[in-house]
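User: quick one, fold this
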Amino acid sequence: MKHKRKITFEDWQWAIIDEFPLEVFRGLYHSDGSRSQNIVKGKNYVRYMFGNKSEDILGLFTYVCDKLNIHWTMKIPTKSRDVKVIYISTRADVAYLDDVVGAKA
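Assistant:
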């Protein structure tokens, strides 16, 4: 299964990831992410979401979020086959991502 394959990076690849975390974020977001409305107590809030089954891909996503100082939280699924989802919900982080990433085309 694809999500069970080990994904590793060489030192030169980590150097690129460290130099261009926003570009890596964009690529991951455009492949497996979304921007949506979250309704809490009758109010609408925008949030970014990223879902994947691969622990390595999730780790890469949270790594670049940390490099960009973006606060994230993760929903752990109740069933082992479910996708783990990472949420970016703080207003400042959502505004930053709206500015530098934007909605999917």
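User: anything notable?
Assistant: The first strand starts at residue 33 and ends at 40.
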